[in-house]
Amino acid sequence: xxxxxxxxxxxxxxxxxxxxxxxxxxxxxxxxxxxxxxxxxxxxxxxxxxxxxxxxxxxxxxxxxxxxxxxxxxxxxxxxxxxxxxxxxxxxx
Length: 93
Known about the structure:
Blueprint: E1 5-9, H1 12-16, H2 19-27, E2 33-37, E3 49-52, E4 56-58, H3 66-75
Parallel strand pairs: 1-2
Antiparallel strand pairs: 1-3, 3-4
């Protein structure tokens, strides 16, 4: 697994949509570096998750989808297409 940093928005709209639970789900994986961050400017698409250094954006992430991001993206290097943010990844939107 490459060393990635996962940024999980913890601002108002995302918090109302379960951002704290999404962050907790990432933090449950001991080999994942997840950080709660302020607004990433994508409030209408929350919960917003950004994976660095890949510059991959996920939107409307739910806690039960975190496992797929960890297994497929972080461990195998294959972004989870169904969760990709269409603004940043328009071919998948």
